[in-house]
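Section 3.1 - Work completed
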Amino acid sequence: MTGWLIVNAFLETEKFQELYRLLLQAAAAHGVTLQQKTTAQLLCPVDSGFAGFALPDFVLFWDKDVYLAQRLEAAGVRCFNRAQAIARCDNKALTAIGLLHAGVRTPRTILAPKTFENIGYCRTEFLAEAFRQLGAPMVIKEAYGSFGQQVWLVGTPEQAETLAARLHGREFLMQEFIASSRGRDVRVNVVGGRVAASMLRSNAHDFRSNLTIGGSMRPWQATDAQAEAALRACRALELDFAGVDVLFGEADEPVVCEVNSNPHFKTTLDCTGVDLAACILDHIVRTLA
């Protein structure tokens, strides 16, 4: 069995290279010939159908270049994850809509009205209305962002207006702040329709729990309710694998905050000893057998 590990052409940090090595090692252990390729190495006209490339049996798509994933699927290549699933996770507005339609509980969400970068949010009455509906403080997130970046907790419409001006027209959404989960959540890693590993993330100094901004982690046995919420989220977004961030509601009921189609799983390995790269390759092999 042959595959391509497709990675971003411009992300060259050791943090990402370490993930790629784990995936390549897992493929070798499963007897799979996995070749790493950057998105730039697959440059070709849209109408070429990748003529000149010996297409693999599958692609492990470790990037968010949805257009490239769509073209590979059109050429008959099975992508893990699929293009549509990556798109739904990459855009937090699409994530919220997809989860809502599937009946998965998430923080109440309002999407900022559409504007353009050359215009910006020159009228901001909608921010006060969002506070009226969601309460204060509320969370503002850019539609695109990772590692807890591009996420803010704002207490007043005036603070929100200042922030919106800095965004220069970039898409964002506003969400109810789940105060009972301040600084803590559970990362539930799902592969092939089952929970592979979970960890509790916490941060005493920030409302966000992300490890990259100072959070800590420890192994965690997901409750039945947390596991089911994560599995339902993955089914709703049609994911082969994902890292699902689950908040604690007022009675510890699960509230799905975000879903990551390309989870940075080295921290999970360090915390739990579970190698998600091996789980992912096992899922791919079983799916294509």
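Second construct:
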Amino acid sequence: MGDISYAPLIEDMVWSYSRVKAFYDCPYRWYLKYICKLHGKDMFFSDYGSFVHKLIELYYRGEKTQSQLCDMYLQEFKSRVKGHAPGQKVFANYFKSGLNYLRNFTPFPYNMIAVEKWVDFSMDGIPFIGYIDFLGEKDGDLYVVDNKSKTLKPRSTRLKPTKTDEELDDYLRQLYIYSVAVEQELGKKPKYLCFNCFREQFLIEEPFQEKAYAEAKRWLSESVAEITKETDFRPDIEYFRCTYLCEMNGHCEYYKLSQKKR
């Protein structure tokens, strides 16, 4: 790969947050998925998140009641969540926490503008697409909500950011990028960026910060430029991520070799 430039192909791409993030997770994963266009396999965590996202969408579209969401969850979990969990304890924990969320379902405290809103916009010449899980309004202010199965913690009050604060900022980057589309379409920026941590049943509301907004836009531009110049696409092997998060592991010779060595 080192002698081949994929820049012409990459320059024609339409970008999404997941496409950029996949490169930083593992450049070789990105190469297999977006250059070779290989089909990935079902993965437990992504299947699970997609299923609960869909149920939340059905509720807000008025297609399912709360009790119907619970019924659908129980009836279709096995067929919708096909990936292999790290163990029975993890499987049971995720299954039970999802069911508890739906049984205690509480609508967001905002008026709905859109659910699973498709965004298609350009920033600094970079074509970008994605879905905003929920866009709401309260007292004239806009709220962007992202449904998260991952455990996140609200921001600490410490002067020096903690590791969980830094993790929160990493995930907020996606919502700041989506805010570009919100501003272009509605003429104003969101007031809050929010995470619906449904497995723990709490909502994180982060005030919109202009500095973080500018940094997110800069990160996107610099990331696309970096990926465009990449020629090596070296693998980043880490057992848990490769085994349970990377849908390309069935095509990855580096992962297969690492398994033989275990």
